Known about the structure:
It is a single chain. The chain is mainly beta. 0% of the residues lie in helices and 32% in strands. It has strands at 17-19, 28-31, 36-39, 42-47, 50-56, 62-64, 68-69, 72-77, 90-92, 99-100, 113-115, 122-123, 136-138, 145-146, 159-160, 168-169. The strands form two sheets. Strands 1, 2, 3, 4, 5, 7, 8, 10, 12, 14 and 16 form an eleven-stranded mixed sheet that branches. A five-stranded parallel sheet has the order 6-9-11-13-15, with no helix packed on it. The protein starts with 16 loop residues before the first strand and ends with a strand. The relative contact order is 0.11.
Amino acid sequence: MKKSILLVLLLAVGSLAVSMSIVGNPICVYASESKDFVSGDYLYQVENGRAVVKAYTGADENLMIPDRFGGYPVSKIGEKVFFNNEIIKEVVLPDTVEVIEYGAFSYCRNLQCVKTGKGLRNIENSAFNHCESLTDISLQDQLTTIGFEAFSNCRALKNINLPISLEKIDR
């Protein structure tokens, strides 16, 4: 069987470290000075032993965000990671995600459905602002805070369950 190796080039200022593997296995690339790591279509950083998604370069309509990058649990969807992404229609978050940061999915005009995991505690300001096609979002019992305008201009939103654990909705 012919083995093919995928070569990933990352240009960055400073020293680089590249980890390669046989096609079919995850590729991890990182620039040691910037502390940015790449796994598939995701750019992430490690903060306090947890992965924070910082960018997405893929073109999938239906996203199932992994629960780990490089062995680190994914705990946050970073600020404006999916901002203005008009391809995404559905997102499934793993149980490890605790925070959806400011504007993470804002202006994802074709996003229709979001399924959150059991670990989500905080949806920050404008997280889903202007997701005009969003009709359904499932929120789990650990959620305590929904930020200011988190769902503003989500005119199609029909189904949202507010869990009993919810303590604060910013206005």
